[in-house]
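In response to reviewer comment 3 from the previous cycle, which asked for concrete evidence that the modeling workflow produces usable outputs, we include below a single protein chain processed end to end. The sequence was submitted unchanged, and the resulting C-alpha cells are shown without manual editing.
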Amino acid sequence: MTREVSVRGRKVTFLITTLCSYGTTGDFEAIPTENLQLDAAELGRRLKDEGCGPVRTHGRRLVLSLGGAELMVFETGRIILERVSPDSQAAAADLVARLMALLPGSNDS
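The workflow returned the following C-alpha cells.
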C-alpha cells in the first residue's frame, strides 16, 4: 500500500510493505519515494524529548519505541517497523505519519 504523509510541510509518499506477520503483530517496511536526508543525531534528540524512548543512535540510523512498536529509522527516511499491532499496513502507515509529525520543521510540532 502507499500512504501520503506530511513531512516538514510537504507531502511525501511512502510505500508500506509487509515483512512478516505473526497474527496479532507484524513487521513492516516503509520506503519514501524521495530521500528525506534526516539528521539522525538531531532527530534522536527530538524524539527523546517527545517521549519516544529509549532512542538509540547507531551511525546513520535510530532505533526507538513508538506506539508499542520498535522502529529503525534510516537517514534516507526508510523505516523498519517491528511488532506493529494491529498487524496491518494501515497501522504501520499510521505510525509512520505519527513519527514524521515529530520531525523538526514539521507543521504538527
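The CA atoms of residues 70 and 99 lie 12 Å apart. We consider this sufficient to address the reviewer's concern, and the full set will be provided in the supplementary archive.
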